[in-house]
Amino acid sequence: MEFENGTQIKINGHNSNPKRFTDDEIGDDHFYTGIDTPLKPNAFEISDEDKKIRIAELFAEIMDVMGLDLSDDSLRGTPNRVAKMYIDEIFSGLHPKNKPKVALFDNKYRYQQMLVEKNITFYSNCEHHFVPIVGKAHVAYISSGKVIGLSKLNRIVQYFAKRPQVQERLTNQIAIELKQILNTEDVAVIIDAKHLCVSSRGIKDDTSATVTSYYGGVFNTPDKITELQNYIKD
Ligand SMILES: [Zn+2]
């Protein structure tokens, strides 16, 4: 949070606005500050179980402030359900312990062309509004001698999607992870997604979608981009 005179406040020791744009300047725009998900240094000192207890308490308070009757049978369990969903499911990709373990195999078939895993459906959440981002990821690489199980490409996408995200960061985080695992620059990631903060609120545009891409190594050439685009078009 930053006030107009430039004074910044820190929340729990974490600078909430390191680039020093005011909240007014950012407004409703999506704003991307860097490749790493902004986490506090002590993000994992609290156990998952303790986080769920705390989130349930706080979510109950939000509901209470909104005037909802938490003694109603339908609402009573909601704070606990939301807390469990946040930690165990939709934001589970914040915790490094949930990162998929990846085994590599020798490229026995000596397959030298690009491998494309397309139409990987994912659900993420916009970190500016905490509403869903729903989309498809297309992931491609050219083997530098090792290959990865196809389901692992999917799991890597899901891991980074299960965080509060912006689409640009999601794209780059998947690409950088794949480059490290596969020991090659020859990696591409294309993401085509709908942001519910754009379609269901704010400007209420239900037809627009956002496309982001990362073309590393040989993928960053017109020929390879055309080849890849041909594979992923419906
Ligand atoms: Zn948003």
Computed over alpha carbons, the radius of gyration is 20 Å
The helix/strand series, from N terminus to C terminus, equals EEHHHHEEEEHEHEHEH
Give the distinct bound molecules: zinc ion
CATH topology of the largest domain: GTP Cyclohydrolase I, domain 2
Which consecutive residue ranges, at least 5 long each, have pLDDT under 50?
1-18
Percent helix: 25-40%
Overview of the structural elements:
- This protein has 234 residues and is an alpha+beta fold.
- The chain has 2 domains: 10-95, Orthogonal Bundle (GTP Cyclohydrolase I, Chain A, domain 1); 98-232, GTP cyclohydrolase I, C-terminal domain/NADPH-dependent 7-cyano-7-deazaguanine reductase, N-terminal domain (GTP Cyclohydrolase I, domain 2, 2-Layer Sandwich).
- It is 35% helix and 21% strand.
- The protein is built from 8 helices and 9 strands.
- The strands form 3 sheets. Strands 7-4-5-8-9 form a 5-stranded mixed beta sheet.
- The longest helix is centred in the N-terminal third of the chain and has 18 residues, at 48-65.
- The chain starts with 9 loop residues before the first strand and ends with a helix.
- 21% of the residues are buried.
- Mean pLDDT is 89; it is low at 1-18.
- The site of zinc ion has 6 residues, from loops.
Summary of the model, kept short:
The protein is of the alpha+beta class and 234 residues long. The protein has helices spanning 23-26, 48-65, 73-76, 78-90, 150-161, 167-182, 196-199, 222-232, and strands spanning 10-11, 14-15, 104-106, 115-126, 132-141, 146-148, 164-165, 187-195, 210-215.
